[in-house]
Design goal:
ten-stranded mixed β-sheet, eight-stranded antiparallel β-sheet, about 750 residues, about 25% strand, 21 helices, alpha+beta, 30 strands, single chain
């Protein structure tokens, strides 16, 4: 009997763990809802701290906890948790500004209760106190923190609340999402107008901020924002940023340059902010930036020297600027630079679905459409609808409900032709670039291929290029700001946790003010070897590894070693039916902790490594394949399978086979003939792999909603539909194919 009672209690506790109390009256009555939210937050905190729901990454745990504590009105505990979060997020107080909006809200609530003052007065006290405590270099980022869209937060909160109609309880995931959307709306609706006005007062005390509508020779309008420190009276070098993401970023870039004792100038591209011109991203930067540099270099606050900085599109802009180099432009710092036509909007000639989302992000209005861009369910639905429909990739914009001339124009150029070549330096044009350059990118950077492309082409055509690169365990955001403690849920080495801002402006001091060369730049290429807590420095890319391991397409279970050339040639056959649009996926199960998706892929497992190795560089090699069609898109990944049962993605590679030898000219495959596909422009990585690990190589066919689908007819892939799929694709992966693994040894 006691045993049955115990089982019943366990069952009740499990049910309580799965469902939390939240009455349906809270959905329709705002007063009841406000009363219920603190209690709901306490319930969610209890679950968050349990073994079942506690995130493995402590940063994620603290992120959720401090928000829930605010909702539960435990403001003092929230302040402590937020401080812990910042310390975990980044070393050296580099994240001291992060989530300042929630901190000011909490401080104001405390002041309001303790001093019986009005909430607006409490906000002013809280903001002034927090502002005074910030390191000066963190002040420019306040604008970014306060850039919340109140109307969108209200919409998202209502959507989360409406999901609970007719229910008397709520599951953990929904409760956490509801609490977070509630806090976003509550915080920004309460403080944004007041705190923005307070920040503007502080700006006037510290900076001179001027805005100008600049007319180009062709009659186009560009908006330029110039920001200077009031205390700097003499002319200074100008740090220019060309920004398509008009909005809070303009203030950030301008103030950041001013804080580092430069003049900050930010120009918005055609069609942005005050410009009524047509917005055609990437197409006019070279011409427009030349005229802007000419203007800023001749202003009384300029000493005639100009440098440029920025990441992603802003990194691309700097390469556009040096295609038509102005004498006043003395250096550029392209960070995570988009390789236009190289890695975006197509990666190795395979167009990505994301391109349409990005186009709408920057063209829907004069600023950026943050609400639309961050509506992940919407874009996932659009891409899934296209994928399941079997319609051509050209129809994606129509399926989205918003046809796009830009999207269609980009699709007209599947090869790296003159349309893309005219936007940035091309071949011998790199030889004319004789200004110093500092490139930063990361192992997890979405535009790493582009950043490395510019670096390689510059050094290829200009043997005396003063072009340095810093690359480490950074993602797209980190390589243009600072090294986060965790990237992709993995901690990075302490030596990699540097300020990219400090590095960039130390470089500007070195070039523009005759300062000291940044300490980290001991050679042209400076890379951090993960899991060793060290940086390495080499003169050329080829020196980043000292030897290679050839991983042949064979499995160690039936061969002595995957690293030894097979004694006889055979193949692994793969069948991919393009008509099949089922959502069923397959996985390689590593352990209870981890698995790897293997849909449309075949895998080859190495033997256990008997010593440590350092994987350092890009995957290379060749695939010898035979297919029954004229083309396909290869998808390759290599993982480290760690002794603890976890996987780590080391590198991946995607390419259209018909462009693999030459990205400018399509060379279709001959059906049922063995063809060779080179592996070029893969993702770079440098990491120590410990003894006892093994490598898992996945090769296969790209077929999913994130990319074009190549049906293999030889026609324009953007025009192909599921009706073109014909018989299933048959790939014979020959075992004398190999992926070349770069290995570094001291």
């Amino acid at each position: 009997m006691k045993f049955k009672i115990l089982l019943a209690l366990i069952f009740v506790n499990l049910m309580q763990a799965q469902k939390l109390n939240f009455p349906q009256t809270a959905v329709t009555d705002s007063t009841i809802m406000e009363q219920q939210m603190p209690g709901l937050a306490l319930q969610v905190i209890s679950q968050l701290q349990s073994q079942k729901y506690r995130p493995e990454n402590n940063v994620d745990f603290l992120d959720n906890l401090f928000r829930l504590q605010i909702i539960a009105k435990d403001y003092k505990a929230s302040a402590i948790t937020l401080a812990q979060f910042r310390n975990e997020f980044a070393d050296h107080n580099m994240a001291g500004y992060k989530f300042i909006e929630y901190e000011v809200y909490s401080m104001a609530k405390l002041y309001e209760a303790e001093t019986k003052t009005s909430f607006p007065n409490a906000i002013q006290t809280a903001f002034n106190e927090k502002y005074a405590s910030l390191n000066e270099k963190q002040i420019p980022r306040i604008d970014l923190s306060l850039n919340g869209d109140v109307a969108n937060y209200r919409k998202l909160f209502k959507k989360a609340l409406d999901k609970q109609k007719g229910k008397e309880s709520i599951d953990y995931g929904s409760a956490l999402a509801l609490c977070k959307s509630y806090l976003n709306y509550k915080t920004f609706a309460s403080i944004k107008p007041t705190i923005i006005n307070l920040l503007r007062v502080k700006d006037k005390e510290r900076f001179i901020i001027e805005n100008k509508d600049f007319k180009t020779k062709n009659g186009n309008t560009l908006t330029i924002t110039v920001i200077r420190k009031k205390e700097n009276k003499s002319p200074l070098p100008v740090i220019l940023t060309n920004n398509i993401y008009a909005g809070a970023n303009d203030s950030f870039f301008g103030k950041r340059a001013a804080i580092y004792n430069y003049v900050g100038a930010v120009v918005n591209t055609r069609g942005k902010r005050n410009s009524n011109d047509e917005n055609n991203p990437f197409e006019h930067e070279s011409q427009d930036i030349y005229e802007v540099i000419d203007w800023v270099s001749k202003q009384p606050w300029s000493n005639g020297k100009v440098g440029m900085i920025g990441g992603s599109y802003l990194g691309f802009s700097q390469w556009a600027a040096v295609k038509n180099l102005h004498p006043a432009l003395k250096t550029i710092v392209p960070q995570v630079a988009v390789g236009i036509g190289i890695d975006y909007p197509a990666q190795n000639n395979v167009f990505m679905s994301y391109m349409l989302r990005w186009i709408q992000y920057v063209t829907n209005n004069k600023y950026t459409d943050e609400a639309d861009f961050s509506d992940f369910p919407k874009w996932d639905s659009i891409n899934t609808k296209w994928y399941k429909s079997g319609k051509s990739f050209r129809s994606l914009d129509t399926i989205s409900g918003k046809p796009s001339k830009i999207f269609q124009r980009w699709l007209d150029h599947p090869g790296y032709d003159q349309y893309w070549q005219k936007m940035v330096p091309y071949k011998e044009e790199f030889a004319k670039i004789n200004i110093p350059i500092l490139t930063t990118t990361g192992y997890y950077d979405d535009d790493q291929i582009g950043a490395l492309y510019y670096f390689k082409e510059h050094h290829k055509y200009n043997k005396n290029a003063e072009h340095y690169m810093v690359i480490g365990p950074y993602n797209h955001g980190g390589a243009q700001s600072f090294g986060f403690t965790y990237v992709n849920n993995s901690p990075i080495d302490k030596v990699a946790r540097i300020s990219i801002d400090d590095l960039a402006f130390s470089w500007f001091d070195y070039i523009l003010k005759n300062g000291k060369k940044p300490e980290i730049l001991k050679d042209k290429i400076n890379f951090q070897v993960m899991n060793t807590n060290t940086w390495k420095h080499v003169p050329v890319l080829e020196k980043m590894h000292t030897s290679t391991l050839k991983f042949y397409l064979q499995d160690h279970k039936s061969n002595p070693s995957v690293f030894k050339k097979p004694s006889h040639v055979s193949f692994t056959k793969q069948i991919v039916d393009f008509k099949d649009r089922s959502s069923k996926d397959s996985y390689y199960v590593i352990s209870k902790k981890d698995s790897i998706k293997t849909t449309n892929l075949v895998y080859f497992e190495s033997e256990v490594l008997d010593k440590d190795i350092i994987f350092s560089g890009n995957l290379a090699g060749y695939f010898n394949v035979s297919i029954n069609k004229r083309d396909f898109d290869t998808d390759t990944s290599i993982y480290e399978i760690q002794p603890d049962g976890k996987s780590f993605l080391l590198s991946n590679h995607l390419v259209r086979a018909s462009y693999s030898k030459n990205n400018e000219v399509r060379q279709l495959l001959e059906p049922n003939k063995i063809e060779q596909i080179p592996i070029k422009q893969s993702i770079f990585m440098s990491k120590k792999i410990k003894k006892g690990s093994k490598l898992l190589l996945l090769v296969g066919v790209n077929k999913n909603s994130a990319w074009q689908i190549n049906y293999g007819t030889g026609k324009d892939v953007s025009e192909e539909t599921i009706q073109d799929s014909g018989e299933p694709l048959e790939v014979k992966w020959y075992n004398d194919s190999y992926v070349e693994i770069p290995v570094y040894e001291d």
